[in-house]
Design goal:
Blueprint: H1 3-15, E1 20-24, E2 29-33, H2 70-82, E3 91-94, E4 99-102, E5 118-119, E6 124-130, E7 133-138, E8 143-148, E9 154-156, E10 161-166
Antiparallel strand pairs: 1-2, 3-10, 4-6, 4-9, 5-8, 6-7, 8-10
Length: 169
Amino acid sequence: MTFKEIQDLLKFISKSDLSEVRIKDSEFEITVRNKNYTKGGGTPTLVSSHPVSVAAPVVQSPEPQTEAKAPAAQTAQAAESTGKDNTEGLLEIKSPIVGTFYRSSSPDKPPFVSVGDSVGEGQVVCIVEAINIINEIESEVSGKIVKVLIEDASPVEYDQVLFLVDPKG
């Protein structure tokens, strides 16, 4: 099972009512449990000896909404009430995986990027830790960082916007 297939599986599970999924074949075994899992709870378990392909986008994470998301929601509400979209013309840098967002490589190091910094395609802008694996997130756009939407050390969802970039900057 590839890393991408595992990511897709995690996205699928977060949308379902399952509390545990177990996949096993001759070379690989994985068990995923969400926060609602209870031992012996009678929840069905999926066992497969065939390759699994899941193509369901994440709509909502089982994680509770954090305060870091509230400012973005308030900004969206303010934009709706004024009839203007404050993000018009801005590009987004999104998280390609579910995990924990970090602005720097360690607490004593400066952030990879800050508001006002210019970024180029392929430049590392943050890291997302998933299952104790550190993933460097590279920008797919060029421009100037105008907003960081996530607090350091906060959970992020697949495809969640992390940064807003002005391509003219």
